[in-house]
Design goal:
The complex is a heterodimer of chains A (368) and B (128).
Chain A (H helix, E strand, L loop, with lengths): L2 H4 L1 H7 L3 H11 L6 H8 L3 H12 L6 H11 L5 H8 L3 H17 L9 H23 L10 H17 L4 H14 L6 E2 L2 E2 L12 H16 L4 H14 L8 H14 L3 H15 L1 H8 L12 H13 L3 H13 L4 H12 L14 H4 L2
Antiparallel strand pairs in A: 1-2
Helix pairs in contact in A: 2-5, 6-8, 6-9, 7-8, 9-10, 9-11, 10-11, 11-12, 11-13, 12-13, 13-14, 14-15, 15-16, 16-17, 17-18, 18-19
Chain B lengths: L1 E7 L2 H4 L6 H16 L3 E6 L7 E6 L2 E6 L9 E8 L3 H14 L6 E5 L17
Antiparallel strand pairs in B: 1-5, 1-6, 2-5, 3-4
Helix pairs in contact in B: 2-3
Chain lengths: 368, 128
């Protein structure tokens, strides 16, 4: 079967007859019996079926990996092998995961549920989480040497678009899609000859303007519908997308957005990003006020990106030796090939020849 | 992979006639289906060629010719950008779009070169 025909929307639509459609649904959810109940549920448009399938696959009763595997299979039409590659497990594991998921669905009779709009709203976070997980797996593979796995990001984007279309009045469906499209818009610029290229160094001519335009439009829709955490993150990503160059980035706005986001979504990683934004907007002292206390947070002490960020502040303040120390600490704390490449390059690029590490930088002497 | 779908126009549209209500409805259904599948990025109809122009550059000379142009079935009447896994899937969507116009139509599908030009790093959805 060609890829196109495996896709859920095609399978559900392929047969005009209701009986055939409910047979397909039953097959997919591996259920038996209670034909009458199923029949009642399959009455309706394709989009209702799709939505029902999404809520089945992403049921909170199922483990996270299982939800991802089922979603990739039933909504994405991926083969077991493709799913195994995506989840970095052997084929047999992926196959068992899917089979177990289907059995759990059958036993808990999940496919017979018909969540009310309120219940859908409650279950929405687990649906969005699955899509975001799939996107992030592709966006920054945390193991191995590959910088991105673009097939997964493409799948996630497709799912997110599906969700926004099926739930047009749900703010966070638009918010998530906006976030993913804006992040994906930078894919063409993220690879350099020697490794990953950081945001501030990317060639913005390589940013995908169609995706940015869609992302910004989706952000407005999401905000108009009430927003949420994904919408807030999309808002921050949009600040970068709108800046014609790194130098023209509206860091004050990003700092404001992080302040608002942190107020309702506190957390050490958010604090890290908030600290960086305040540094860029108001200088190193403002950044240190937020970042240095994080060193004492047990969750953050061994987080390499915190040390890397502080190294940047040290460098900005002319504290080259301190920056070097922090970069070495950061290197020791991560296995990610991508992050190690970036940190290594920064370390190699540090200005040299400071006899006394406490001496302040002398621009006259240090400029090459 | 991103594809551009170009549907060719016909004498009827070139004369400025809008799509019939039935055609309009079928086009709407197709767009909804493509959107529901998460593949539709952008779709636009083009005004008749009488509203456009051609610019040719030849040996340092520029000439501008206003529409309308002849050979309606060679002219693009509508465009859509879609995100498909491969050419096979794109062709399937092209087929569905073509059958929407039951009178007869030609749809051309072309893959969009990734940012950085062909052979450069792919955009999201590039499975090569």
């Amino acid at each position: 079967m060609t890829v196109a025909k495996r896709r859920a929307v095609d399978v559900v639509r392929r047969e005009a007859g209701r009986d055939a459609r409910y047979r397909e649904m039953a097959e997919r959810a591996s259920m038996t019996s209670d034909e009458e109940g199923l029949e009642a549920r399959v009455d309706g448009r394709i989009e209702d079926d799709l939505l029902r399938l999404i809520f089945i696959c992403c049921h909170p009763l199922l483990g996270r990996d299982t939800r991802v595997a089922l979603t990739l299979r039933l909504l994405g039409g991926l083969t077991t092998q493709e799913i195994a590659r995506a989840q970095l497990v052997p084929s047999t594991t992926a196959g068992q995961r899917i089979a177990r998921g289907k059995r759990a669905i059958a036993q808990a009779r999940i496919a017979f549920e018909d969540p009310t709009p309120d219940e859908q709203a409650q279950r929405l976070p687990s649906v969005l989480e699955v899509v975001y997980l799939i996107f992030n797996e592709g966006y920054a593979a945390t193991s191995g040497e590959s910088w991105t796995r673009q097939d997964l990001t493409g799948e996630a984007l497709r799912l997110a678009r599906m969700l926004a279309h099926l739930m047009p009045r749900v703010a966070e469906a638009h918010g998530l899609l906006a976030l993913l499209e804006i992040q994906a818009s930078r894919f063409g610029a993220r690879h350099g000859p020697t490794g990953p290229v950081l945001l501030e160094e990317q060639d913005r001519m390589l940013w995908d303007r169609l995706l940015i335009r869609r992302g910004l439009a989706g952000l407005e829709r999401a905000r108009a519908l009430g927003g949420g955490p994904y919408t807030a993150q999309a808002g921050i990503a949009a600040c970068h997308a709108r800046a014609p160059s790194a130098e023209l980035t509206d860091w004050a706005e990003i700092a404001r957005l992080y302040d608002a986001y942190a107020a309702s979504n506190p957390g050490p990683v958010v604090e890290l990003n908030r600290g960086i934004a305040h540094w860029k907007a108001r200088g190193t002292a403002a950044g240190r006020t937020i970042l240095e206390p994080l060193l004492a947070d047990a969750r953050m002490t061994r987080f390499h990106l915190l040390h890397a960020a502080l190294a940047e502040l040290d460098l900005a303040d002319g504290e080259v030796a301190a920056a070097g120390t922090r970069l070495r600490t950061a290197l020791g704390l991560t296995d990610s090939a991508a992050d190690r490449a970036v940190l290594g390059a920064k370390l190699a690029g540090l200005p040299r020849g400071r006899a006394n590490p406490r001496e302040p930088a002398d621009p006259e002497r240090d400029t090459p | 992979m991103r594809f551009l779908m170009m549907s060719k126009t016909n004498e009827d549209f070139e004369a400025g006639n809008p799509p019939s209500p039935e055609l309009f409805a079928r086009m709407g259904e197709f767009m909804a289906e493509a959107a529901a599948a998460g593949v539709l990025l952008q779709a636009d109809g083009l005004l008749p060629s009488s509203a456009g122009a051609r610019i040719t550059a030849q040996d340092g000379e520029i000439s501008v010719t206003d529409g309308p142009f002849a050979e309606a079935k060679e002219l693009v009447g509508g465009i859509a950008f879609i995100e498909a896994r491969d050419l096979a899937e794109a062709k399937e969507w092209g087929r569905r779009f073509a059958v929407v116009h039951d009178g007869g139509c030609e749809v051309e599908i072309r893959q969009v070169a990734a940012p950085g030009g062909p052979g450069g790093p792919g955009g999201p959805g590039d499975f090569s």
